[in-house]
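Regression test attached.
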Amino acid sequence: MIEFFLIIFAPIIGGLIYGFERVLRARMQNRQGPPLLQPFYDMLKLIDKQAFILNPYHSILGIMHFFTLWVVVAFIILGENLLYAIFLHLLSSIFLILAGFSVKSIYSHIGANRELIAMIAYEPILIMLAVGFYMINGSFEIALIRENSSSIFSLILLFLAFLTLIPIKLKKSPFDATEAHQEIVGGVEVEFSGLFFEFIYMAKWLEYVFIYLLLMLFAGDSVLLGTVLFVGVFLLINLLDNSTARVRIDHLIKIVLSIGLSFGILNLIGLVYV
Amino acid sequence: MIQSLLILSPILFSLLLLRINLIARNILSILFVVMLSSFSLFNFISLDSPVSILFPHYFHNIFILLDYLVLLFFLWSGVVKKHLLVTLLALLQIVLYSGILLLKPTLLSSDILVDNLSSIMYLIINIVGGIIIIYALEYIESEKLSRMKKNGFISLLFLFLGIMNFIVSSNNIEVFFLLFELTTLFSYLLIGYRKDELSIQNALQALWMNQLGGVAILIALFFSIMKYNTTYFDVLMANIDPTFLLPIVLLVIAAFVKGASIPFEKWLLGAMVAPTPVSAILHSATMVKIAPYLILKLSFVMSGFVSISITLIGTFVFFSASLLALSKDYFKEILGLSTIALLALMMALAAIGSEQAMNAALILMVFHAISKALLFLQVGILEKNFHLKYVSDIDGLINRSPLVTFFIIIGFASLTLPPFGAFVAKFMAIESIANEITKNPLYALVLVFIALGSVFLTLLYFKVLTKLFAKDVDYKQESLKISKYYTLPSFALLALLVIGIYVIFTMGLLSGAELIVPTVLVSLVPLLFATLTFKNAHRVKEYNCGEKEEIELAMFYFNISHRLQKLIYSVAIFGIIILLFGVLL
């Protein structure tokens, strides 16, 4: 039952995390910042806007991106197969990328291309992460991973690699070249507006839920460790976001991939011998 | 015997086709393809235990005669075309083959052995191959050739199906060698079909590289007779001595050649000058599948060293071919390199030898054939209807032909994304490798190659869509009409993909929810495209920061440096040398 509610309210939980993040970031910069519920006020405002679209394909793919991501989150909450969830997440990203390609807009195209290239950086790490969990638990089942005790010490290097890909997925500095609002005005999102932008906006919240749910897997059955991980990583990511400059997309790939692959492979081999 | 029908009937049918008119040819061909497909399906369903057939003695004499004819033809081609390598290799093959004929191995077995693996190969060859031939009926009509030559083209394709059916049922390595050489002959003839400078040059390249594979089989045959006293696959594998796997490794190298694995990939890429149905039928859907087939057959007897070496080489090729493809613009070349990559992956998985990995290889083989055939058919349509060959020219195809765009997207999506078969194979592959890492840490490296290679392929497939998917707001013209012969085969392949999802469901490889959910999501997209128009929403132009310049979209390329290419070759060649020497020591 609790799973059911979690799934239904997943976008709202994501919205709350996002709202809290904006408050926290403002405090880090010594300003007042928006209220906690600001993301929801934004949503209310967007509903009233007139609908502007470029072509139906673009809007439909944006909506599909949101729903697919919601399904991914649902699969993880229900404790399904981790590797499968990662591939389904790929499908949702592909919908967004196709949406970006479906219009003749230069920023949308650059954004979609960057989104696609950034995949090189995080996808292999996610797969290795799944394999790491598999080697410890003997299964990709998330329910089983949650029942077993924490594996963060055995997977410490993969955990570090995972940390490097969080900023990419959450569009945080230093790895936010895919969105880069100052140079490419938001990338893929640029052509969405009004009601249709709402789906993209909520998809961003779901992305938060997705990432933090994956993070919780490191805690295993320990609620305390889960809370500590969540709070710690949340602070760390926002601190980084506030204190670093954006990295170019090709550097992003090089940095994340070299860290991810070397740490990942060491960790997997270490699991055999240590 | 349904198996002998599958082998013999295409050969007879191809003779019939030579002298009939267009309509009769088309109707008969379609009926015959339906018949072949039903035979292969019937065989697949009804086969309980392996079927074996023994040839009478004079059959072997016919095979020997044919073998000499083929080898002499190679020699003749080499001399006439003044190609030294072809000539020398043909001579070497003749000498080796004559030597082998002098040896008289005594352990005999049946010449034809049809097991489950062969049945699955029948399905691929006859159904996918058949669909491509139906497509070729229309395609070849738009070439400037005489009626005789056009019919000859179709009958060559049917003949080829017969030979493919034969090769996957053969249990005798000698016969296997003959058929291997025959497929080489066919690729030589079909690649050079247009008879221009480039075609002939590439045909010769395909010839000498495949001859290398033939030489490898002959040496394997020699050692098999000397050490194991047999020319039969099943006897060889039953009596195998783990300290002497040289014949097996040589057969694997022949598979590398046929599967156009790096460093032998040049011939397959050169084959792209051939008419598109040829590329589809020979070079992605059927012929190259001999490579993973052979390794699947042999993987039971591989030692740990041989198995891990092949897996490492295969996944390395998978990774590098996907990387190389990122720098290409010619559509067929992109597809060709992705075929090379996926074939190498199949071989790697087959060599692991665990049940799960082998199933993954099989599933990948089946669905790769369907998806690649679908993609190649679209390439042909693009060529014939739109005169496009380069990805960078396919600008805004969605405006002109939404259907072709849809097939291209489905073709690419079915190679990477859930719920399609190739995805299931990738999924199983990763799980089976995760199981192997605990036994041998080298598999961690295999995993990295697979993870990187598959993300490169995803990148490749969707970057190709960059330009063709960009819908023009102002575009008002009607979309182009495309002949039914072109679209119907594509719909048939699409149906196969969907049936495939159902088959995977019945096999219980993924849970119901795991298949149904993405199926619904993916099929919703075209459904919504067709129904939702958002009439009430205002149409706007793209945001362009106030610039008035005309926008030209472009696809990005990866610049693969010369040094990196050389490095890839050296590593691949080094891997094969290690494999060969490792097994000798």
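Expected vs. actual: identical. Residues 2-273 of chain A form one domain.
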